[in-house]
Amino acid sequence: MERYDAIIVGAGISGLTLALLLAANNRKVLLLEKAPMIGGGLCRFYKNGVPFDTGFHFTGGFVHNTTLHDMLTVLGIRENIHPIFLDKEGSNRFLFEKEGLCLDMPPGLEQCCARLGSLFPTERSAVKRYFEMVDRVIQGTPSFDLRKISISPDALEEDYVTLTQVLDSLTPNQTLKAALSVSCLCYGTRPNEISFANHARVSVGFYDAMARIEDGGDAFIRAFRNAFKNYPIEVRCNASIEACLDIHNSLVGRFLLSNGQEVIADKCIFTIHPLEILKILPREHFTKAFWDRVESFESSNGFFSVFGAIDGEKPGPDFEPSILSILPHTDVNLLMDPAYDGPQALGIFQSRECFKDESFHVLNAFEPSFFGHVAPWKDSKVGQRPAEYMEYKRKHASNICERIRQVFPEYKSSFQMYDAASQLTFRDYMFTPDGSAYGIRHKVGQFNLFGKLPLRNLYAAGQSAVLPGIMGSMLSSFVVARAIMDKDNYNDFVQKRLCH
Questions:
Q1: For the chain, what percentages of helix, strand and coil (3-state, to nearest 5) are there?
Q2: Which of 58, 197, 293, 365 lies at a CB distance of 3.0 to 4.6 Å from 158, suitable for a disulfide?
Q3: Domains of the chain
């Protein structure tokens, strides 16, 4: 029977990170991925030769000595990831349609504070106080220093109040509150549910410096693949764990894989959606309270997506990548409410992409969506959807294309839609329970599934553990790696890699 030091279930960014960390510290690793390829939401797809990003479009944290920069350095892949910073005027723009307000956010906390202060001169003190609170949270969060991370860090006061509560205490200006909370759309939890602390932890990277990545998520996948060649990592796609067997003294002795093979491992770490983890765990070894808690987690929003490109005459060489966030009104809580059926927010991402020596001007649009929107067709399968669903998808995609042409009249005749995807599309291609974009909602007071599980050689990590997004997913893997490796060995490894 094959024996491994660690089995990792799920080969998204969290699983890839954990596999490389453990293998670089002399662990024999088996990495399992249910999909036909590794990468999860990082994977690109190609339509008529044009590359499109699936779930990874931009990130923060690439400033030197910030957390993402440090994690990539420790993993030894930072030199293979090339950020394209959105640092030009208009690169990160918010359009408040009802108010007729256009806001360009510059990179840097001080610059964002100054820009908002100039736009809302009577609210300068509120803006200043907001960014001071963001900085206080970051300075008080040990996990942002890879040498000090912990599975159970001390909570801050800001962990117990919602973003809405803080903003209401700072200002009555609804437009300013929307400008300060709009990044909620980038992590899938409403302002009245997310703690101010977690909002700050996710948003600080966007304030510091937003960036796209050359070759998108494929660049990460390629970097991990190349790094894996140097270590004892076995990757199996179209594979998962079916059952945990031979359980004694709260330890799993054997693991039954989906191909019928049984293997032994000292540790098993799940980086998949918590509800998918429950399908594997032996229920009789867990309390009802544990089971009920995990089943009570609510999913984040997903997206209805349109993928297109500018055909015909291409933009000139001065074209810069950009993100345009359109808000039909300033009530972000309402925009992220599953029951809301009014005009939706829309994110539009422009980028220049290259494939096989050809350049493309790509435009992707993402509208928040919830599983209830597609629930009538939840039992259908790819390629076998009913006519009612196809009409829903056609009509929705057509409406988004019309909005794109209204906002970018210069593309009225040249923008062409190549494909569209609903939450069902994401569910079936990404192997998630409901196609949500960010796993579970990270709500105030919620005890997420993270770290060691009640069966002592089982662990949980991933974007539903610490924070959503690429940085939170990777950070959760660093925390779990520290627990498995023990503190001193982990600290020595990190210190050597950061000082190399």
A1: 40, 25, 35
A2: 197
A3: 3-44+216-297+448-499 (3.50.50.60), 87-208+300-430 (3.90.660)
